[in-house]
Amino acid sequence: MVDFVREWRERAELPLGLFIRGFGISPSKLYSWQERYGKDNFHNGLIPRDPWLADWEKAAIIEFRQAHLMDG
Asked: Based on the structure, what is the number of domains in the chain?
């Protein structure tokens, strides 16, 4: 979206605020996207996920995988 706004705002020769308002984007949202542009998205990246599975669930997954290794 950042690239789209940059390119087409210049072609349309409209002020930035007027251009993005037509898409329902607030200036703060666009600036937030510009700050994150090119960076990896770590949405919920710091949440440890190991406790989400009980030990019996982990064992069942491992057992299933071992039983179906030849399938693919």
From this structure: 1
